[in-house]
Amino acid sequence: MAHLRAPLSRLGPSAKTDLRVCADLADMSRRAGDAAVRTINEAVRTAGTCSIVLSGGSTPRTLYRLLASEFRARIPWGNVQIWGDERYLPSENPRSNYRMAKETLLDLSGFTPSTRSSHGDGLSKRDEPRLSQ
């Protein structure tokens, strides 16, 4: 069951609700992947580029793997900018959001950014030269 944390009245007069119930994490990830592909392609079609922000934690791991494999060919990665948040952890740390995104999406998708960066202590000394080009 999904819960809204704020009353709908605080979201503004044009806010719409869209509650979807999924069978499991795989179903939710597949639906999110389909929606991401549509949204990315529409943004690239209208603006020439699309910026997305990656979430950390364990929930998006399945989605990122799908985007890097099954949905990979449907995404114009050369027109996508990827942003994300990072905990102040070395990138080798199992709890690093950057590490999870790198292992499940960035390295597998064919995404080749001109720069990849994290901020603060999220970078290891080994990654700094490659990431700061």
Major β-sheet profile:
2 strands, parallel
CATH first level: which class?
Answer: Alpha Beta
Structural class: mainly alpha
Strand order of the largest sheet: 1-2
CATH topology (level 3) name: Rossmann fold
Q: How many domains is the backbone divided into?
A: 1
Mean residue pLDDT: 78
Name the shape in a single word. globular
Outline:
The chain is mainly alpha-helical and 133 residues long.
Features:
Rossmann fold; disordered N terminus; 2 strands; disordered C terminus; 8% strand; 133 residues; globular; mainly alpha; two-stranded parallel ribbon; 4 helices
Q: Could you characterize what this model shows?
A:
- The structure is a single chain.
- With 133 residues, the protein is mainly α.
- The chain has one domain (20-131): Rossmann fold.
- It is 36% helix and 8% strand.
- The chain has helices spanning 25-47, 61-68, 97-109, 128-131, and strands at residues 50-54, 80-84.
- It has a two-stranded parallel ribbon.
- Strand 1 (50-54), helix 2 (61-68) and strand 2 (80-84) form a beta-alpha-beta unit.
- Helix 1 packs across helix 2 and helix 2 (61-68) runs parallel beside helix 3.
- It is globular, with a radius of gyration of 17 Å.
- It starts with 24 loop residues before the first helix and ends with a helix.
- Mean pLDDT is 78; it is low at 1-6, 114-125 and 127-133.
